């Protein structure tokens, strides 16, 4: 009986067992209206990540900017997003989730419009930073809101969130390519208009303010990273995101010499990439986690992503080869995004907004490093080298998870398995 007591004192994961959803059992499609409002706005928010992808060569050409300067459109956005993520849980715990979501969307609308009206690349870089601030306020709060309000448990909520992410990332390049074929300014204005629709959707459909949590200390996300489980996952995500953004942000410049430099062509390529990501987020990731622990899924898929990036480097002279690697990469990224997010949400007993802020802050900072570093590596060492560097970074992420696996028991559901076993023993004793 002492074993039962000890496990009860430590608590157990509330939602899953590390091998897929255990509670709820309902379809992820049966959700409250408020969840759909936030998910819809998430799709639009995530469009902002890939929106500029197809127009990077056009911006570089029309504004006389170097590839590295143009890649700073990603870096300024991601750096501010990452830094701001550490403070979003503190803010939302004081003013409420709905207000935080609306402030974030309003900032995105303003800075997207400003970027579209800019006359030089330096100004766009600055406005993309402001866009990143709005993005941080929205994304971190949206994840916690969906997880808290969705029916079907944590896993169903995260699958819905990752589906929104995948759909947004898929649609972003497509719209960016379509509007970018008219003018490089078009995607920025289009994003502002869509964000305005999301803003109205939150006002109308999220009528009831989600339950306001107890005020969170400003230092909480930083202290959270001292938790071994969360710290390991965040560190791995930093290196994983370097590979993610090498594929997303550098590949357009790698495809230009291969005759695939038009905005519409790049938009279609990354539309395929985003659709692949969305499909595996929703269907393949749950299938895998029902059959093995989350950490084992990550151990399996991360090396496959590294191989895919390395293959892109080997096939750098083949347009078909690089595009194939992009699509395959989307399939692998969908699994990794979902499983990593689930792991973070279950890795500790911390409030989910705190865990989300800490993890997302580190993750986005990793993504900020990759775009300009990739173009610099290509300039000095050749166009294949960024893909090899991305592959090496993904392998570092895998090594971190393998070496730190003892601290991921809670994310894997091992504590809950022990608790259930202890309950059975206790029932037998009584």
From TrEMBL:
Membrane topology field: Multi-pass membrane protein
InterPro entries xrefs: MFS, MFS_dom, MFS_trans_sf, Tet-R_TetA/multi-R_MdtG-like, YfmO-like
Localization annotation: Cell membrane
Annotated region described as Disordered, given as residue ranges: 1-23
Main localization category: membrane
Pfam families documented for this protein: MFS_1
One annotated GO molecular function: transmembrane transporter activity
Residue intervals passing through the bilayer: 34-52, 72-93, 100-117, 129-151, 158-182, 188-207, 228-251, 263-285, 297-315, 321-340, 361-381, 387-405
GO annotation, cellular component aspect: plasma membrane
Keyword annotations: Membrane, Transmembrane, Transmembrane helix
Ranges of residues in domain Major facilitator superfamily (MFS) profile: 34-409
UniProt cross-references to PANTHER family, sorted A to Z: MULTIDRUG EFFLUX PROTEIN YFMO (PTHR43683:SF1)
Name of the protein in its database record: MFS transporter
């Amino acid at each position: 009986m002492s074993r039962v007591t000890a496990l009860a004192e430590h608590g157990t994961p509330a939602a899953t067992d590390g091998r897929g959803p255990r509670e709820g059992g309902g379809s992820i499609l049966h959700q409250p209206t408020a969840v759909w409002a936030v998910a819809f706005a998430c799709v639009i928010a995530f469009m902002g990540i890939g929106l500029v992808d197809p127009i990077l060569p056009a911006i570089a050409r029309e504004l006389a900017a170097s590839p590295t300067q143009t890649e700073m459109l990603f870096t300024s956005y991601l750096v501010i997003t990452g830094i701001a993520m550490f403070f979003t849980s503190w803010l939302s715990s004081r003013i409420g989730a709905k207000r935080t979501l609306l402030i974030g969307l309003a900032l995105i609308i303003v800075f997207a419009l400003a970027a579209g009206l800019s006359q030089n690349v330096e100004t766009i870089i600055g406005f993309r930073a402001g866009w990143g601030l709005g993005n941080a306020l929205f994304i971190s709060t949206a994840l916690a809101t969906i997880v808290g309000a969705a029916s079907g448990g944590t896993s169903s909520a995260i699958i819905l969130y990752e589906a929104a992410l995948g759909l947004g990332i898929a649609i972003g390049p497509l719209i960016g390519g379509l509007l970018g074929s008219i003018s490089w300014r078009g995607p920025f204005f289009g994003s502002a208009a869509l964000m305005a629709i999301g803003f109205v959707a939150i006002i109308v459909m999220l009528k009831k303010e989600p339950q306001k949590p107890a005020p969170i200390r400003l230092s909480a996300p930083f202290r959270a990273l001292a938790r071994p489980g969360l710290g390991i996952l965040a560190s791995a995500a930093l290196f994983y995101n370097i590979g993610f953004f090498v594929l997303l942000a550098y590949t357009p410049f790698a495809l230009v010499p291969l005759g695939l430099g038009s905005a519409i062509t790049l938009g279609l390529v990354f539309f395929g990439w985003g659709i692949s990501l969305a499909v595996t987020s929703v269907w393949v990731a749950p299938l895998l986690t029902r059959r093995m622990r989350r950490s084992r899924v990550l151990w399996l898929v991360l090396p496959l992503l590294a191989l895919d990036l390395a293959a892109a480097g080997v096939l750098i002279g083949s347009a078909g080869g690089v595009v194939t690697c992009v699509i395959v990469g989307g399939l692998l990224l969908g699994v990794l995004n979902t499983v990593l997010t689930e792991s973070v949400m279950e890795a500790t007993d911390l409030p989910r907004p705190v865990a989300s802020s800490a993890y997302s802050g580190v993750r986005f900072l990793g993504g900020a490093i990759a775009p300009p570093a990739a173009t610099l590596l290509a300039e000095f060492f050749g166009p294949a080298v960024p893909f090899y560097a991305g592959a090496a970074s993904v392998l570092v992420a895998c090594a971190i998870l393998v070496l730190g696996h003892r601290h991921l028991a809670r994310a894997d559901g091992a504590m809950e398995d022990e608790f259930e076993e202890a309950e059975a023993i206790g029932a037998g004793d009584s």
